[in-house]
Design brief:
single chain, mainly beta, 8-stranded mixed beta sheet, 5-stranded mixed beta sheet, 23 strands
């Protein structure tokens, strides 16, 4: 019986995989242990998380044995196709970034932070007609972000170091890199402990030579006061990621390319 291992290439860890009927295949992607089984009239998707970091640099590992799982979902069809796509996608909510230490950007300064967000795995039938599931490669906590319980949104929380130099960034195939440029045009320092990334509004890109995933750059300008801030989603892939192609459009498009948002909807933890 032919094995899907032949579908794997060095940079082709996403894409189409062929499943003979009654065959299972298993992946380890970051913390996600994923198992897929094709039967004549159903796909079985099961997964659990391995909370310690993976060893080595290979993001996908095929295993011959089955693994136990805490979550199982059956997808029923009149007849299943013999192929399934594994595709990366961004989270379905905004992500609140919490740097390891509180940060200050002084008046007149411009800083770019590089944030890596764990992507999700999208399972799509070979014909592209059916989306089975979207599964995070790392479980993220829920958090509320906003000025109060009535004004804000439900987000995911991600703790990160927030690199300021590209040389400090490690290449991880299960993370999407987002450059966040913050300009402080106010006369007072900008102190913050958390900031909110509207990832559902940006496209996902992949470097054709390395496989690195990235998103559009996000530009935030703080004005003279803390009532509002200008947020702009820069068009195209970020220049630091080489020759990249768009592989997933935004989940939802903003009304305008430049958004004027309440300052408290972007930053929290100090203000001025």
């Amino acid at each position: 019986m032919e094995s899907p291992v032949k579908e794997y290439t060095d940079h082709g860890h996403w894409g189409e995989f062929t499943f003979p009927c009654h065959q299972s295949c298993h992946w380890l992607i970051h913390q996600l242990q994923l198992s897929l089984t094709r039967l004549s009239r159903e796909w079985q998707v099961s997964f659990q998380y391995k909370l310690e970091e993976n060893s080595g640099n290979i993001p996908l590992r095929f295993q011959e044995r089955t693994t136990t799982s805490s979550k199982l979902q059956r997808h029923l069809f009149r007849e299943t196709e013999d192929a399934l796509f594994l595709l990366p996608c961004l989270p379905d909510r905004s992500v609140v970034i919490r740097p390891a230490q509180p940060s200050t950007i002084h008046p007149g300064e411009k800083v770019t932070l590089y944030v890596g967000t764990p992507v999700w795995v999208k399972l799509v039938t070979g014909s592209g007609n059916h989306l089975l599931q979207e599964i995070p490669t790392q479980p993220l906590s829920d958090t509320w972000f906003g000025a109060n319980t009535r004004s804000g949104e439900l987000c995911y929380l991600l703790r990160t170091r927030g690199r300021t130099q590209t040389g400090d960034i490690s290449f991880e195939r299960y993370r999407a890199l987002t450059p966040v440029t913050i300009e402080n045009h106010a006369s007072t320092p900008l102190n913050f402990e958390r900031f909110c990334l509207p990832l559902p509004m940006v496209s996902l890109y992949q470097d054709e030579s390395t496989g690195q995933l990235s998103t559009q750059e996000i530009l935030v300008k703080r004005g003279d006061d803390d009532q509002a801030a200008e947020l702009k989603i820069q068009p195209g892939a970020p220049s630091i990621c080489g020759q990249s192609v768009e592989i997933a459009p935004p989940r939802r498009k903003p009304d305008r390319q430049v958004l004027v948002k309440a300052f408290s909807s972007i930053f929290s933890g100090g203000g001025s």
